[in-house]
Design goal:
This protein is 35% helix and 15% strand. The chain has 158 residues and is α/β, with parallel strands linked by helices. The longest helix is centred in the C-terminal third of the chain and has 14 residues.
Length: 158
């Protein structure tokens, strides 16, 4: 699999089918926080998000962990009290993903990474052999070109 190519594309997390993940052997999901499951400057988590997450956990027995490079939210999201979370994680470093696997108690091949970062989420998950889902909600700016530019700059500096 190409290192930056996701296993699946979605315009929204709500397009992601828990039954299909369960059938594919997924037992744990590493979720990106900002602009994947919640808008960066949102005041609170939507009830529909909470329902979707609870459905994954109860109906499909999929464990969840939030892994984000951002600082912990200062407002009462509640989700970070209900779902284990690692903030300022340092993705795409392997250490962040291994810490998430330890929390989930899953193996790489039974874990999915859901995120909107080409490098932080896709590359980080793909290089460890995880199932990756790229989420590009309509309320985020396209980041692909910016990610390619940053990668090109890093390669040229080496």
């Amino acid at each position: 699999m190409p290192i930056f190519k996701p296993s699946q594309f979605a315009r929204s997390i709500y397009e992601i089918d828990g039954a299909a993940l369960q059938q594919a052997g997924i037992k744990g999901i590493i979720l990106d926080w900002n602009n994947t499951i919640i808008k960066k400057d949102a005041e609170f988590a939507a009830d529909s998000l909470k329902t979707w997450l609870k459905d994954l956990q109860s109906r499909y027995a999929i464990k969840l962990v939030i892994v984000s490079n951002s600082k912990p939210p200062t407002k009462g999201y509640g989700l970070v009290n209900e779902i284990p979370a690692l903030f300022e994680a340092g993705k795409p470093k392997k250490k962040a993903f291994f810490a998430a696997l330890d929390i989930l108690g899953t193996h790489r091949n039974e874990t999915a990474v859901i995120g909107n970062g080409i490098i932080t989420d896709l590359w980080g998950g793909n290089r460890l052999g995880m199932y990756t889902i790229f989420v590009s909600p309509s309320w985020t700016k396209p980041r692909f070109i910016g990610a390619v530019k940053r990668l090109l700059v890093k390669v040229l500096r080496v």
